Amino acid sequence: MRIVTWNCSGALRKKLDAADSLQADILVIQECEDPNRSTKGYKAWAGHYLWIGENKNKGIGIFSRKGAKLTPLYWTGAFQPSSTSNLTFHLTDLKLFLPCLVNDDITLVGIWTKEGQFSTFSYIGQLWLYLQMVKNQLNGLKAIFCGDFNSNVCWDKKDRWWNHSDVVQEFSKLKMGSAYHHFHKEDYGSELEHTYYHYRKLTKPYHIDYTFLSNEMLATSKTAIGSASQWLSISDHMPLITDFRV
Residue 107: enclosing H or E segment and its boundaries? Predict the structure, then answer.
């Protein structure tokens, strides 16, 4: 199976040929518009898909390109950071996470982390909170978490327990790992390939997009990242392509 995550930087309806060139079984695309409220051509191309967003022009979509069945999951949950805190986070408040079942077999969560309601738990903090609320449901399941995390170990802060490194540890407890780091045998924060170029400048590269797989799929996985020479003209993010056996 091939799964591709790509932040298309908007207007996916104008980039369908580029998306098709990835030859994915499943596309997880951030910053795309809702096909149901866009052009007829885009809606026809989308076929079997799931989508959520804060407005019709920018959300996250999961698109089945080769017949895979996608079934939405409607999880609920809450988390209180400490027993002395009056602050409670609810799953529905976190942004943006799109969970589904693939072929009634694999749990897939599409991700586009955002600042959220509380800036202290922004971006990677949103994912950390999400994992606290759903990890009991995931334990022992075949699972994929992929998307634009907007995060890297290089931005870890010493006074927090929800840094990128902490999220990696949470995935490890679920017997999951990053396909890119497994395949390339690189340390987190020392990536040699980049998925994002700030302001589309080659001098400002970062690795902030990830696909985490359950260990049984991780063992067979290989990854590639789209080249800046091909993709930078249409997005500041490069597609992260992951192949694995199911």
Answer: strand 106-112
